[in-house]
Write the structure tokens for this entry.
Amino acid sequence: EASPLPSYIFDRETLRILDVNRRMSEQYGYTREELLAMTIRDIRPADQIPLLQANLEKAMHNKGVIHFGVMIHHHKDGTRKQVDINGKRIRLQDRDCIMVQAHDITDRVIKGNLDQLERNVIEMTLRSKTDIAVILSEYLVGLEALISGLMASILRVSDGRVYNWASPSLPAFYADALNGLTIGPAEGSCGTAAYTGKQVIVSSIEKSSLWKKYAELAKAAGLSACWSTPILNPQGKVIATFANYYSDVRTPSAIELEIFNRAAVLISILIESYEKEQNLRISYERFEHVTKAT
């Protein structure tokens, strides 16, 4: 009970959880009674079971502290967490058991992966002539891989309307329906963010007054939450919006909000860099044309 980390004891043969501390119940969302009716397989995705079995085999030959490594656990609400697991063999109720501590390192891993993703996207921008829509789409796919359940979208804003720029995981009919929608004070998350120039966090589309016009469209696409932030050019004009959609009602966690805001800054830089490159190319082509003509 004294450990600040989630801790549990399980039977080595049956894998049944025999005891848990309070922190385990608090973090994983299960009651103590629910956890004691489970095995350690039940807190892991199916694709993690082979790794679990391999680690348990290693544990049989280790009498000291056992480092099981980083594994995936899921909480009662379905959230997947990366945990660094250490344990040791003990005897409890005349059974061969293992006592485990699970250190949640999800945020640390995500930030490390985010750093690498940003470097890769910046290098892609600098080293190639790839179209900006492709670059933005690649970046969003990378972000979606970092955050469970995320469906990201970037809309271009032009003449008071929004147009799909990159939405790799949104249903095609939904992304197409966004093209040409007007911006305004109650035009969904993105239309409102583009109109006000301010971030809009809608945790429940169904209950939001901003989504009255589009609630049925969102429902048909299986979307329940949408957070949107405006992308500004150096002159302070809104040129795009960056949105995070989820299929469940959801308020951003601290790490999700940090990534959301950080991504918006990089998207702004990517667009600005691309437009400068395009303007330079057009100027060069004009110069060549004038030179040849004279």
